[in-house]
Amino acid sequence: MQTPSDQQDRHDYPSHWEADVVLRDGGTARIRPITAEDADRLVSFYEQVSDESKYYRFFAPYPRLSAKDVHRFTHHDQVDRVGLAATIGGEFIATVRYDRIDERGMAASAPADEAEVAFLVQDAHQGRGVASTLLEHIAAVARERGIRRFAAEVLPANTKMIKVFTDAGYQQKRSFEDGVVRLEFDLEPTDRSLAVQRAREQRAEGRSVQRLLTPGSVAVIGVGRAPGGVGRSVLNNLQESGYTGRLYAVNSAFVEGVSLEGPSAGGVSGEGGREGADIDGVPAHRSVADIEEPVDLAVISVPAERVPQAVAECGERGVRGLVVLSAGYAESGVEGRERQRELVRQARSYGMRIIGPNAFGVINTSPETRLNASLAPQSPARGRIGLFTQSGAIGIALLSGLHRRGAGLSTFVGSGNRADVSGNDLLQYWFEDSDTDVTLMYLETIGNPRKFTRLARRSATAKPLVVVQGARHSGIAPTGHAVQTTRLPHATVSALLRQAGVIRVDTVTEMVDAGLLLAGQPLPSGPRVAILGNSESLGLLTYDACVADGLRPHRPRDLMTGATPADFRTALAEALSDDGCDAVIVNAIPWVGEDGATTDPETLATELRAAAAGCPAKPVAVVHVELGGLAEALAAATSTGPDAPTPPTGREPEAPVSAQAPVSAQAPGPAQAPGSTQAPALVEQPTPETPEPPAPDQYRIPAYPAAERAVRALSEAVKYAQWRREAAEPGRVHEYDDIDENGAAGRIEELLAADGDPRGLTLAPADANELLGRYGIHVRQALTAPDPDAAAEAARTLGYPVALKTTAPHLRHRADLGGVRLDLADEEQLRRAYQELTDAFGKPAELRPVVQGMVPRGVDTVVRAVIDPAAGAVLSFGLAGAASELLGDTAHRLVPVTDREAGSLVRSIRTAPLLFGWRGSAPVDTPALEELLQRVSRLVDDHPEVVGVSLEPVVVAQRGLSVLDASVRLAPPPARDDLGPRTLPGY
């Protein structure tokens, strides 16, 4: 008879436990179950572990594994005994295993719910966060197999492993006996363990992007022998940007010959350059493997069929990251999609991350790096804006637009098909990047909406995030993007992004407009806007635009057409000093002075900056018409000088970092985050030979060619500032004493088990009402009325007056079609109404009529909750009726909803005034409505099996409310990719 350790796997290979992960230093590893085929790998791994680490693992000298050990550590039943390995390049770098035990510490099977866990990490990979990551994954596996608690015995001297356990955030007990530290901890995730996990996720993913953007050396693979071509262009762009690291040119066609430099290379014969020579002064090699020095980043621009060889060479050479410019992947069809999956699989197996394929490239304007590994022929000026785009064409447009407006960038990533590194990774990086104050993102797809909204909310509390979403109406992801699609309409997705603090705009032009204001000006403290200028008509247009965008403009101040730059300065200073003003828009048109002098944009810009410097706590924007050179003059410089006036908030100005220079050579320099009271700075773009000059006290003011564009940008800044203030006090999720969470869970389990359909079921009205009642949501009783006599009996049971309504799908909730009769005071009226309904719409069997008692009159509303597989649980609210549905007047929030969010949900629909006493009507009980929203939110959040709830109508009266009809849908809970252990998206 075989013992459990001798048995083969009791379960099929659990492929869903496989995962790619990012480690603490930004490298990647693959986690997978250990199998019987791993015997040689295990032995090789163990031989590379130091004697000290072996001693810590086995509490005694253990120089080698016996055959019995190897068999035991590679044969698991995947239930009571599980082993996972972290691998790089197919070889083990760490292992973890658990063995289920009983209360005596002996081997056991279910229902025993405790297991002993042990780790072993190769010394060369200690300190990379491998053990912490393995702990997350083995804990998730254990929970799946019914294990609720881990125990670990550790030698006191093994402080690193003790720290892995104690820092994980689980509730634990610690004891010391017989010279061994025993740790026991529950595996149920806690708020602290989730916080620890997400903090580690942020550091690891941010570091993985940092490695790509700050390489100490770059190899361009696919550099042509003649000028032109993608590889040669990227190499030239790297040189022109003044890249501070080491550069290498790689092409397998390089053979013995002559060096290639500049245009003369065009005359070189097919023999190519010689190995060990150079191209345009850059060392040239046939392969990355021939480069003696370490290579941090490889830019690959060879045909797709040759990319696998290049990736393999990079992996074997220890390259840390890849930018794949090559096309011919998922954007080209099914075959290309499989090629893309294999590319990601291959790169991750070596611990490398990828930007691309079909990428535009990356840029980092930091003086320490000066990296332009992209197809952009001119590196942008240095600035405070981080830019991410999934489209090369849009990337070109944005880079050009920002350059024309005098704005600079901190970093840029054009991800192409974004098979690996995504916008989420950039958010992780920019969150702690001191060189970035504003982030702009063009997204065609959001691969993990749950994670994106979580990261966006966290990022937006510190830095503005402006997003344009392409392909939002087609419902079709670009062919190069393999992502989960959402069933939610674009308006809902947009509302959820705004809830997370995202500044959602419709066009790339609006994104640039908003980015310029946010990067160069403080956040407004309110919506009050002063308008001044030398054109009355332009002032009126600005006023109208402010009103349309929800701002509160003051009456425009007309300085008359003869106003001088000094007049503008005086008027702007007065407006900024007004306590009733939160922001100023200046309008300027060409003028001719009394002495015949014409417009001087430089003088006007100087005067406006001087006035703005006197009140750095309020934003200023300029609208100019046919004033060539004004935008460039206003963008020429900005102040963070030490002598700048201290703003009213008492925040200290930062050190000087800027200098005035031609627009083409300037970009914002280090400055405080937007929303502070000091404007960011512009610095001269330095060359390798030129140190950065000191900064003058000048302010960068954004300029716009149309009033509507300036107002829209300011309006977005006002709404974002308001969100920031509200986010500082986020509210709380209420705990209601009358909620029966356990009872609801039991009932849900019973209903799903009885149905047995994996697709789920819609509950019968009685079951739905019972489940809702466990959460304090009480639905008014409705009695079926298959004939007039049954209707009369129902009315006598409920008491008059009553309502008679149909529940047929085509008439349900459509009072406008005549399927509802209200205020029926007696049996005669009831029978007459019954006859009218059947005469008008058909037989009772088709109409499914019901009788319901009348409720106090009020405003009819609708409350819904749905589970979207990509975005998660969404709570929606609106007024009932065809008009609201037709106009799309529905508001949305992500679950769970706090008390503050419930209040904002009620007030955010356009028809909200009807709830608060519009045109003399009595206000209704909105606190009761907000409580109902929170109870529905709690139900859906507590029980992921509840995949749909609809309460329609909910009649909100002056006191209280009545839920007249409800439906609930249950289904097996969808997978939650945001609650499990850290993983990279699958391929």
Question: Summary?
Answer:
By secondary structure, the chain is an alpha/beta fold. The protein contains 27 helices and 41 strands.
Q: Could you walk me through the main structural features you see in this protein, from its secondary elements to its overall organization?
A:
With 987 residues, the chain is an alpha/beta fold. 32% of the residues lie in helices and 21% in strands. It is built from 27 helices and 41 strands. The protein has an eight-stranded mixed sheet, with helices on both faces. A seven-stranded mixed sheet has the order 11-12-10-9-13-14-15, sandwiched between helices. Helix 4 (130-144) links the parallel strand 5 (114-121) and strand 6 (149-154). Helix 8 runs parallel beside helix 9, helix 16 runs parallel beside helix 17 (601-613) and helix 26 crosses helix 27 (926-942). It starts with 18 loop residues before the first strand and ends in a 17-residue tail after the last strand. 48% of the residues are buried. Mean pLDDT is 85; it is low at 1-9, 262-275 and 637-698.
Q: What are the SSEs and their pairings?
A:
Blueprint: E1 19-22, E2 28-33, H1 39-47, H2 51-58, H3 67-74, E3 81-88, E4 91-101, E5 114-121, H4 130-144, E6 149-154, H5 159-166, E7 172-177, E8 180-186, H6 191-213, E9 217-221, H7 230-240, E10 246-250, E11 278-279, E12 282-285, E13 297-300, H8 307-317, E14 321-324, H9 334-349, E15 353-355, E16 361-364, E17 371-374, E18 382-389, H10 392-404, E19 409-414, H11 423-432, E20 438-443, H12 449-460, E21 465-469, H13 490-499, E22 503-505, H14 508-520, E23 528-533, H15 536-548, E24 552-553, E25 557-558, H16 565-577, E26 583-588, H17 601-613, E27 620-624, H18 630-634, E28 666-669, E29 681-684, E30 703-704, H19 707-727, H20 741-755, E31 761-762, H21 765-773, E32 782-784, H22 788-798, E33 802-806, E34 820-824, H23 827-841, H24 844-847, E35 849-853, E36 859-868, E37 872-879, H25 882-887, E38 890-894, H26 899-907, H27 926-942, E39 946-956, E40 961-963, E41 966-970
Parallel strand pairs: 5-6, 9-10, 9-13, 10-12, 13-14, 14-15, 18-19, 18-20, 20-21, 21-22, 23-24, 23-25, 23-26, 26-27, 27-30
Antiparallel strand pairs: 1-2, 2-3, 3-4, 4-5, 6-8, 7-8, 11-12, 16-17, 16-19, 28-29, 31-41, 32-35, 33-34, 33-35, 36-37, 36-39, 37-38, 39-40, 39-41
Helix pairs in contact: 6-11, 8-9, 10-14, 11-12, 14-19, 15-19, 16-17, 22-23, 26-27
